[in-house]
Amino acid sequence: MAELAFFSGTMDCGKSTLALQMRHNRSARGLIGLIFTRNDRAGAGLLSSRLGLVTDAIEADEFFDFHAHVVKYLTSGGRVDYVIADEAQFLSPGQVDQLARVVDDLGIDVIAFGITTDFRTRLFPGSQRLIELADRVEVLQVEALCWCGAKATHNARTVGGRMVVEGAQVVVGDVSQGGTGGEAAEIGYEVLCRRHHRRRLTAAAAGAGPLSQDVLPTDPVPGR
Ligand SMILES: Nc1ncnc2c1ncn2[C@@H]1O[C@H](COP(=O)(O)OP(=O)(O)O)[C@@H](O)[C@H]1O
Ligand SMILES: Cc1cn([C@H]2C[C@H](O)[C@@H](COP(=O)(O)O)O2)c(=O)[nH]c1=O
User: What does the entry list as the binding residues for substrate (predicted)?
Assistant: First the structure.
């Protein structure tokens, strides 16, 4: 039976890479998919991974109707074995409902990928709806790491290198940015563990290297 699956995690944990791998494996077996994305960093109509892979995708803007698009595609003689939707956090709840109808009414697998929460630790509306509706929610196994070495569970936004907790929910950007160039270049992201997100302690604020020795307090080792 067709299903709606949501692969979720922080930024930079490999979601787009997995989307490209799933597409590759399916097309190697002759399956045909429709690939959607929204606001990919590489540009409109692209699904890109930091590993350098990129593929064409259909840009699903705020007015896009997934169900209508797939129905139109099928009725014009197209074949659709599966649907991939990347950057699904940016979708509206209504668009996620459309994806669920693609599964239930058309019998087509839908695999969505997206970050769960924004820089304020609040659920994105699209992710919230996916968690509500998905048959399966999977957290990616290759977790990103906080500068302290703990598993990164939250996304921080930085402006000029400093973590902020106010601003627009959607600002396209990357984890390796955050310099002090122009206005846009100032905004960056960093993945952190919850403790350091709560303390607004980014790597720069902590004076940490790539993987700092200034780790979280741990229980003393017995006998030492
Ligand atoms: N130079 C590299 N060598 C090996 N792996 C890399 C390299 N650069 C990025 N990665 C891997 O790619 C992941 C990010 O993949 P990506 O699909 O772009 O993430 P997401 O879509 O979740 O933001 C990183 O967590 C890391 O595992
Ligand atoms: C936390 C957060 C992120 N974004 C943007 C930044 C990126 O363009 C995407 C996430 O892409 P990735 O492939 O998962 O790295 O989301 C945002 O707009 N608002 C936020 O709060």
Answer: 170-173, 189
Question: 12 CB less than 6 Å from ligand 2?
Answer: yes
- List domains and CATH numbers for the chain: 4-139 (3.40.50.300), 154-206 (no CATH)
Distance, CA 78 to ligand 2 centroid (Å)? 32
Question: Would you please indicate which residues are annotated as catalytic (active-site) residues?
Answer: 87
Q: Residue 18 Cα, ligand 1 centroid: separation in angstroms?
A: 10
Tokens of 193: 């563990």
Which ligand sits closest to the CA of 115?
2
CA distances from 116 to 29, 75, 81, 186 (A): 31, 34, 26, 23
Decide: pTM greater than 0.90.
yes
Which residues does a 6 A CB cutoff place in the pocket of ligand 1?
11-17, 49-51, 142, 144
pLDDT (tens, 9 = 90+) of the chain, 224 residues, equals: 999 999 999 999 999 999 999 999 999 999 999 999 999 999 999 999 999 999 999 999 999 999 999 999 999 999 999 999 999 999 999 999 999 999 999 999 999 999 999 999 999 999 999 999 999 999 988 789 999 999 999 999 999 889 999 999 999 999 976 554 555 558 999 999 999 999 999 999 998 865 555 554 445 444 44
Q: Of 92, 2, 90, nearest to 40 (Cα)?
A: 90
Taking CA atoms only, the protein residue closest to ligand 1 atom 25 is 13
Report d(CA 71, CA 204) in Å as an integer: 49
Residue closest to 78 by CA, chosen among 100, 108, 117, 98 = 108
